[in-house]
Design goal:
Helix content: 10-25%
Number of domains: 1
Largest sheet: 6 strands, mixed
CATH superfamily: Metallo-dependent phosphatases
Strand content: 25-35%
Number of helices: 5
Oligomer: single chain
Strand order of the largest sheet: 4-3-2-1-11-12
């Protein structure tokens, strides 16, 4: 499965055009967006253009993000199965590792894809001043559950990828770096795409 991972569009029409081009040209099976569109109208206009299965979580600048469409699923403390994988979207206002573990108790780690807007603490979460501001609850969850993939954004300064034995972490915040990532599962092969 080929997954395009992005986050933090910040209402950029230029980024929308480039993402749509990648989705059409790179044989993408699933698209993940970890939030921060900055406008519900902007987000809905973008969602209407998507033809590939898409999973979205709300960012800290997205209020009451809603969309009724066949290809786009906005997940907040919900799991949706697709092509043998389970996509878990975290609610940006409620980070609780015990709750996330209870939601995923019957899901094998190698089939779990975790999407949150904020990063886990100490993993691709450093601000410009070097301070780590990720969520401890997400770190606890990924250490215990070991999902195959965790996609997030929010911290523009720490865009990138980190591999551990079990989990591939992708900070796809592209407002500053303009870097998006294509992940192949189950191999965890990564392709960086400059937008």
């Amino acid at each position: 499965m080929r997954i395009l991972c992005t986050s933090d569009f910040h209402r950029s029409d230029k980024i929308v055009k480039k993402v749509l081009k990648i989705l059409n040209e790179k044989n993408i099976d699933v698209y993940i967006n970890a939030g921060d569109f900055l406008s519900n109208d902007f987000a809905r206009a973008f969602f209407k253009k998507l033809k590939v299965k898409t999973f979205v979580v709300s960012g800290n600048w997205d209020w009451d993000l809603k969309y009724n469409g066949k290809t786009v699923s906005i997940l907040e403390d919900e799991i949706e199965k697709y092509k043998g994988y389970c996509f878990l979207g975290a609610n940006p206002d409620f980070a609780n590792s015990k709750h996330l573990l209870s939601l995923t108790k019957n899901i094998p780690a190698e089939k779990l894809i975790f999407i949150s807007h904020s990063p886990p603490y100490k993993i691709l979460d450093k601000m410009w001043n070097g301070a780590s501001i990720g969520f401890v609850e997400y770190t606890e969850f990924v250490k215990k559950k070991k999902p195959i993939l965790h996609v997030f954004g929010h911290i523009h300064e720490d865009n990138g990828v980190k591999k551990t034995k079990n989990t591939l972490f992708v900070n796809a915040a592209l407002a500053a770096s303009k870097k998006a990532y294509i992940v192949e599962l189950p191999s965890k092969k990564i392709e960086t795409v400059i937008l």
